[in-house]
Design a protein that fits this description.
Blueprint lengths: L4 H7 L12 H39 L2 H4 L3 E3 L4 E3 L2 H32 L2 H16 L2 H27 L18 H25 L3 H9 L4 H31 L1
Antiparallel strand pairs: 1-2
Helix pairs in contact: 4-5, 4-7, 4-9, 5-7, 6-7, 7-9, 8-9
Length: 253
C-alpha cells in the first residue's frame, strides 16, 4: 500500500536547517552560532598547543620523568623540577571529591525537584546557588579551621585500619593527618556539590512528571522509579554535570 505524503514526511524527517529554505536572518543566525561552536573547538586546540609548546623544553630535557618523577632539586649547577607527586595528589583528591559529591548532588537535586514543594524547593535552590557563589578560598579556610579538626578522628581511624588504600594513607603516618587525602577530598566535595546539583536539577526539572506519576500509580516505589525511569533517561546530563565538577575539582587542587 503506497504511503501518502504525510506518512512519508513522518517516516523520514528532513533536515532543513542551512539548506537555503530559511530567510536571511535565520541563515545569519545559523552562521554565527556555527562559527561560535567551531571557535570553541579551535580555542581548546590552541590552548593544548600552547601548553605543549611551553612544556616542550622540560620534556626534552627530562623526558616523561618530568610527569611521573618526584625530584625537586634547585642547585646552581642544575634545576630538576618534576610534578609527579603534585599530579598524583591532584588526581587522587579530585576523584575522591567527585565520588563523595556525586551521590550528594543527585540526592539533593532529586529532593528539590520531586519531593519538596513550593517555598521549600525555592529555599533549597537558593541555598545551593549561594553555596556555589562562595569563593574557593572561603571554603578552603573553613576546611582548614573548622572541618579538619573534626575530621582528624575519622582520618586517624581510617588510616589505622585502611591505610593501605591510597585514599586513607598519609605521607608521614598518624602524626600528619592534616595531609590526608580523605580530609582534602571532603573539602573539595563541598566545593563541587553545588555545580553538580545545579546541572542535575535542571535535567530533572525537564523530565516528564507524567512518567513518574504513572509509575507511582502502578505501585512502584520512589527508589524503583528513580533507578528504572529517571536515572536511565537523565544519565547523559548528569554525566555532564559530574565532568564540570571534576574540572573544578582538578582546578582547585
Amino acid at each position: 500500500m503506497p504511503k501518502t505524503a504525510g506518512q512519508q514526511d513522518l517516516a523520514q524527517p528532513r533536515r532543513v536547517l542551512g539548506k537555503g529554505v530559511l530567510n536571511r536572518g535565520d541563515r545569519l543566525f545559523f552562521g554565527i552560532t556555527s562559527a561560535a561552536a567551531y571557535f570553541a573547538f579551535i580555542l581548546v586546540g590552541l590552548i593544548l598547543v600552547f601548553l605543549v609548546a611551553q612544556a616542550w623544553p622540560a620534556l626534552q630535557e627530562q623526558g616523561l620523568a618530568f610527569v611521573y618523577g618526584d625530584k625537586w632539586e634547585v642547585t646552581e649547577e642544575k634545576t630538576i623540577l618534576q610534578i609527579g607527586p603534585m599530579l598524583y595528589g591532584s588526581i587522587l583528591i579530585a576523584l575522591l571529591g567527585v565520588l563523595i559529591a556525586t551521590p550528594m548532588a543527585i540526592a539533593t537535586a532529586y529532593m528539590i525537584v520531586f519531593i519538596l514543594k513550593g517555598g521549600w524547593a525555592k529555599l533549597a535552590t537558593n541555598l545551593i546557588d549561594l553555596l556555589a557563589a562562595l569563593p574557593s578560598v572561603i571554603i578552603g579556610l573553613w576546611g582548614v579551621l573548622v572541618f579538619t579538626p573534626i575530621a582528624q578522628g575519622w582520618a586517624e581511624f581510617l588510616h589505622q585500619y585502611l591505610g593501605w588504600i591510597p585514599l586513607f594513607a598519609t605521607d608521614k603516618g598518624t602524626t600528619s593527618l592534616n595531609s590526608s587525602p580523605f580530609i582534602a577530598g571532603w573539602i573539595v566535595a563541598v566545593m563541587i556539590v553545588p555545580i553538580i546539583t545545579s546541572v542535575t536539577r535542571e535535567i530533572f526539572s525537564q523530565f516528564d512528571r507524567e512518567l513518574v506519576n504513572g509509575a507511582l500509580a502502578l505501585g512502584a516505589t520512589r527508589w524503583t522509579v528513580f533507578r528504572r525511569v529517571i536515572l536511565p533517561t537523565t544519565s547523559g546530563g548528569i554525566t555532564g554535570g559530574v565532568l564540570l565538577g571534576l574540572g573544578r575539582a582538578i582546578g582547585e587542587t
